[in-house]
TrEMBL record:
Record field: transmembrane: none
UniProt GO MF annotations: kinase activity
Pfam families reported in the protein's UniProt record: FGGY_C, FGGY_N
Keyword hit for S-adenosyl-L-methionine: no
Protein name in the entry: ATPase
Gene3D superfamilies in the cross-refs: 3.30.420.40
Domain Carbohydrate kinase FGGY N-terminal as annotated: residue spans: 18-244
InterPro entries reported for this sequence: ATPase_NBD, FGGY_C, FGGY_Carb_Kinase, FGGY_N
Keywords on record: Kinase, Transferase
Organism: Metabacillus sediminilitoris
Amino acid sequence: MANKVNQIKVDIANSQTALGIEFGSTRIKAVLIDSIHSPIASGSYAWENILQEGIWTYSLDDIWKGLQKSYQEMVTEVKGKYGITLQNVGSIGFSGMMHGYMAFNKDGKLLVPFRTWRNSITEQAEKKLTKFFNYNIPQRWSIAHLYQAILNEEEHVEDIDYLTTLAGYIHWKLTGKKVLGIGDASGMFPIDVEIKNYDIRMIHSFNDLISGKNYPWKLEGILPQVMLAGDEAGHLSEEGAKLLDVSGNLQFGIPLCPPEGDAGTGMVATNSVSERTGNVSAGTSVFAMIVLEKELKCVHPEIDLVTTPSGSLVAMVHANNCSSDINAWVKLFSEFSEVLGYEVNTDKLFEILFNQALEGDRDCGGLLSYGYYSGENITGMREGRPLFVRSPESNFNLANFMRVHLFSALGVLKIGMDILLNEEEIQIDKILGHGGLFKTEGVGQKVMASVMNAPVSVMETAGEGGAWGIALLASFMTKKEENESLEEYLNKKVYIDYAGVKVDVDEKDVEGFEVFIKRYKQGLTIQQAAIDSLNIKRERAEQLNEELHHSKHELKI
């Protein structure tokens, strides 16, 4: 043990480290790794999006506060564990939630509040652009947000000088470079995987489409430069070092890898960047990433086409909602136990309730739920109305209650995956899971295996998530050998000694999910009726969001 600590001290002293910081939907996390890619210190900052005038957003103040707090917590751990004041690292990488809309003018001022992936406000643009390009353009994509702003005749559009993602914004402010990793860029605008850059034909077509507006910009002039894994994407500026480390100890000049999206870093953190591999991230949202062997046969509005950090084509099924409603119900059970005079550890409560779900009927006993806290594009819901529904004949017990919420958390994902597996006949050799839904051993994996109809593994490193993934990309940039691919680097130098726990497919669970998903689809009219009938005022929604943000009882998976 002493030798290991001493080696880590040597790595820190010699800057044989890499720092990854990821902006997730509920947590900003910083992870420092050593020369053998093992996490040696971390820090985090909890945050929540807010509903502001009907838009899901995060404030710029919270972005920078979270970055600085998570970094400082990591630095404090380095000092406590190794007795070293951190002044330098070998490389840095930033990642964040993909998609969304951050538009800036020539003075670097944010023109409208950050519009996140969670918004379902670009349906008109989505439909028009998908038809225009003959290529699926989801509502979350930056180009959909831009075109919707154009359709809405929003005044700020004329003043746009730069359009980027959250990770691209952080990278720009810390380096001065307007660049983006290809994986994150593929959630802004379609990528031509042959040239590893934006699709030139579509760029020109979009410029022609909006030419009548006479804006003073062309699309190619306001998008970030596309970069690949392994490229050097700039250096930490003197101003950037002070922004990141308010103590002033961190040196400037550190090289940075291209900023990436959380989907790309999830692929790296699960070693699923090769063809016929896939990973599933399940937390506030849920998305599956399958690396394809070839183009899809058809355009599917349920399937995004994005890329790995190296530029390989990936089919992505994304659902806006996953664990939020489960968290809310577990919070209710926690409050009930407190009223009875028992305080149950949060992790223990999740473990008990999740395992109870395994005792339920295979099809959830006729129960139905929708955990829609926000709109859901694949099922065509513009807003969120969490629902729980049952008939008098339903088998209403705790086991089925928990099981149906786990099933419904993956209902939208199931609809998309059925298209890939049944219509496109894609082949998957392995699926790796990460995210809060997999914290309780075996349960989330078992449910996910019934959705994927394939074994699902969770690695011991899955808990480190995308922050570790972007740290690996930063390390790859500085330590790769000549002509060494990202796949080779991960297989030979990172994942040799990492074991995973695999859960196989249970055919009876698959059959039960098929029965459930039929009920789920039929019940979507109920969900739509709730949206039409329950018109909650925005002021009340914002108040509830503020209460949630500050609640000391808030639970997350």
